[in-house]
Amino acid sequence: MSSKLKPSVQGKMALLALGYCVSMNICGAFLGLGITALIDPGGRFTTSVEKSDGLSKVSRKVEISDVFLDFFRNMIPDNIVRMFLFSVSFQ
């Protein structure tokens, strides 16, 4: 059906479809960010470290920069990184 259309109309339809896909992805991303901010998953939990005496605790809330750094660190598995960095030879 679309093969019978003029090239200019096909281009307009392609741009409309591309714009629709991009706008729906952006709307979904903002909806997900809004819901995540609303329910605050993990907000009840903090990381804690006990000192050797067992009495004092240092609590720290996870920051957004920690999340992004972990995300980028985990994009490539450790075994792939080790494969490129270290070599083992057998004799």
Automatic annotation (TrEMBL):
Gene3D superfamilies attached to this UniProt entry: Sodium:dicarboxylate symporter
InterPro entries xref list: Na:dicarbo_symporter_sf
Enumerate the UniProt keywords alphabetically: Membrane, Transmembrane, Transmembrane helix
Q: Name one GO molecular function term.
A: symporter activity
Q: Where on the tree of life does the source sit, at the highest rank?
A: Eukaryota
> Which residue ranges run through the membrane?
12-39
Gene Ontology CC, one term: membrane
Designated name of the protein: Uncharacterized protein
